[in-house]
Write a structure and sequence with these properties.
6 strands; 193 residues; alpha+beta
């Protein structure tokens, strides 16, 4: 356990200078977020994908720099002026859950990943995933996994530093942690007749 704590401390020191740390950790209610620095924008949500398009077009779409809004210190880009207007009227309606990080990662208290092209809307909430495998694993138990992700987001992740939380939960894993291989096996087992 002592070695894990030392590695955890070294990882935090190493990560302290990362530019991504700044992009993902605004001083606002949206901390942390799946954001990157792009052009003159310090924090661009979902690498510039349009969060309104999931609802209006039923697909992901890349936003354009000329159609953007800043909400809680985070830049959101849109595919059209109409999408920007919809967002500006009710921004919280369009926000992805868990800061846009992979919903399946949040089941384990880990804010990371989140590919704009892998998503689902469930009960009026937009969930982003790290890929098809993460989405399939989450969908094995949507209700249970949503409850776990909501709990970890509320109790540990929201308001924290994404890099510190990620490092912490990669070293000190939750009791129900499953590796990628274990999740893939569970998904395959669920597909069998």
């Amino acid at each position: 356990m002592r070695v894990r704590a030392l590695l955890f401390s070294l990882m935090l020191v190493f990560l302290a200078g990362c530019g991504a740390m700044t992009a993902q950790n605004p001083s606002s209610a949206l901390r942390p977020v799946n954001a990157v620095a792009d052009g003159g924008d310090e924090r661009v949500m979902l690498a510039g994908h349009d969060v309104v398009a999931y609802w209006t077009l039923n697909r992901h779409a890349l936003g354009l720099p000329q159609f953007k809004s800043v909400y809680e210190g985070v830049t959101f880009r849109f595919a059209s002026a109409e999408h920007k207007a919809l967002f500006d009227q009710a921004p919280t309606r369009y926000l992805p859950q868990y800061g846009g990080y992979c919903a399946n990662g949040l089941v384990y208290g880990i804010p990371w990943g989140g590919d704009a092209d892998t998503w689902r809307i469930d009960n009026g909430r937009l969930f982003i995933f790290g890929g098809a495998g993460s989405k399939a694993a989450f969908e094995l138990d949507v209700k249970g996994n949503t409850e776990l992700a909501d709990r970890y987001w509320k109790d540990e992740v929201a308001g924290s530093n994404s890099f510190v939380q990620r490092a912490r939960r990669l070293v000190f894993r939750v009791p129900h942690y499953k590796s990628g291989a274990e999740l893939a096996a569970a998904v395959q087992a669920a597909k069998r007749p």
